[in-house]
Design brief:
Length: 815
Amino acid sequence: MLTLILLIVAIVGLLAVMRREAGALPALAVLAITGLTSLLVASPVLGILLLLGAAGVAAAGLPALRGKWLTPRLFTMFKKVSPRVSETERVALEAGSVAWDGELFTGKPNWQALLDYTDEGLSEEEQAFLDKQCSVAAGMCNAWDIAKERADLPQELWDHLKQERYFGMIIPKEYGGLGFSAKAQSLVLQKLSINETLMVTVGVPNSLGPGELLLKYGTDEQKNHYLPRLADGREIPCFGLTGPRAGSDATSLPDTGVVCKQVIDGEEVIGLRLNFEKRWITLAPIATVVGLAFRLFDPDHLLGEEEDRGITLALIPRDTEGMEIGRRHHPIGSPFLNGPIRGKDVFVPLDTIIGGEAMIGQGWRMLVECLSVGRCITLPSGATGTARYAIGWSGGFARIRRQFNVPVAEMEGVQEPLARMTALGYIAQAAVYQTANTIDRGEKPAVPSAILKSQLTEFQRVILGDAMDIHGGKAVTLGPRNYLGIGYSANPVAITVEGANIMTRNLMIFGQGAIRCHPYVLEELAAKDADDIQAFDRAFFGHAGLIFGNAARAFTQGLGIGKPVVPFDGEAARYAQEIARLSAGFGLCADAAMASLGATLKLREMLSARLGDVLSNLYLASMVIKQWHEGDRVEGEEALLHYSCQLLLGRAEQALDELFDNLPNRALAGVLRRVVMPRGKRFKRPHDDLARRIAQAVSHDSALRTKLLANTWSSDDGPEANFLARYNALLATQERAEGLYRTLNKAYAKGELAADALHPEQRVEAGLAQGIISQEDGAFMREREARVLELLTVDDFEYDAFVTDKSKVLRHNAS
């Protein structure tokens, strides 16, 4: 019995030391004390085993001992198996900053570090712009007119965008811009997501483009000339990066610039001769100034000894001789201005290089650093704004659309997708807002930008699919009354651009995060490159301590022992503790995958993707908890908290489960499964009760619906119809209408109304005639049913309306 007690004491003591990553000395003390005690008063065999363990810990854990024999051997082995990091990858890894994503890699996230990113909200100026100017812009949008009739925004909307300096949101006020915060930019784009063409047109110049590049790297002369002109719309920018041979692998671009001399106005000047072919360039057809990425060569050594000068960026006026620009691509579902740019032997002076000669060869670094911020804002904000509108439209439609004498919102088959899309929209709102807030606090979130871009645009795909299902025939029939179908068909654009989601999920999130966010991997690689064995020793054995710590934390917390203290209350505290548990499991699995697969992990993209999925879902769940903790909660929101966190944590566990199923080393997979999930998966699909509560709230005039639709265009006072405002108006009187529906339907069932009173309008008139409802109620229902019918109606057209070549029309019934 004493032997068993000593064994348990040793195990518990080691787990406590490991959980705290207390180092070799406390572990040595636990093993030595329990070993000597066992040797003297219990089992000599156990005592010898524990003392041997103590000797092993001393040999590997004490720097003075391991430095003489173990560290040199490990360093030699590490040099052989560690992945080679290319210069391109190194630039990407060093771009941006590490914040909460790094905490999740530690396995013991410090929640106070996340809460320290306090939120000061929007300024009065920003909120006023959102309320007024953005409502004006949204009110000028008719999706059918923009997409099918003019393939462009109307002129008055272009004039408004330029006049109100939408293209200068990121440009400081001293250059004539708006100088908005990242949060304000995000909320502006969310509101403008009423129309995807409008959102893209405003978003792209404020994301990856000449404006941000000039701000960060431009010369004073370039800034003073271009930034005021970009801010007020005198210059429309585009940026040419991708081409026929360079898409996701943008660094392989074959476009070239050659340093040369040319006589201009009788004077010989040094410049660049450019040859390029770009495509998929947003705003290219109307751009007045073109940002261009190319590989620069100096074969005649006019600028120095080096011939290959690397990727370089330049800013070229539209009217530069030799540049072909103006043709258009036809993006699926949306006519936002996008097209190719070509150039053959285009000569430009050296001062067109962004940042001047000092920034030659720095183009890839410049692009990656800008993208770490811009990718957090534009497409994630567009996806979040789309979700807001889709939730509002779908909740309203499901409530006013009646089948079998009840609103379809009362049918569980509709409630399920309505709740799912609402939860995904809620998660998106929290993630994009809180990440933008970290940007406003000085962070440049490289890995979160990849998470938000891929995850939220995938959410958008699900949300729009669910919205289409709920709307049914209303959404599949195109025309001016269809507010959903064109955006649905344009969704693949968001999936594809700014890093295709396949690439981002499979390569970037974990591939970049495993090195950039890990507490020790970057240090180990730097020690290898510097051939610094002492730095390697510190990093490697710190890494080893982290592995043991995560194993202990994951296992004990998986058993429900030693839950971490978190700065939250109620249910949020439980979810934060579960995030910490899965963070420890994720950290352990990440290290196990890197150790067992080495450099080949790069090629095992499906495994990398699953690790990225764990990180993504833990990050999103953390943002939801922070938003819940700091926000003004409304009735019904708790159900969304539960649904969202259970969904995300269930997805994280599922990704871990699939990782265990597919790791090549089956013994390692079995050990990891038992350590990380000793009690199996904790989270199932959210309960049906949650779905019912959420669906009811968003299909009624509730506080939760109002909160979810905040900062959308919800006033019906523009030149174009606002369907969201019309749904909101109907929901405001829904309770009164439901009572009258029940009264009339009950009277019809009893035979008190004529048998042919089949339409709601007929029953209203019959009810009036029989005195079943009052004149006031009758007038109310007449007006309401007219408005309902208008929202349910779809468009029809002349027989040959969609035929471009009328000579090809088949007149099947010509007679």
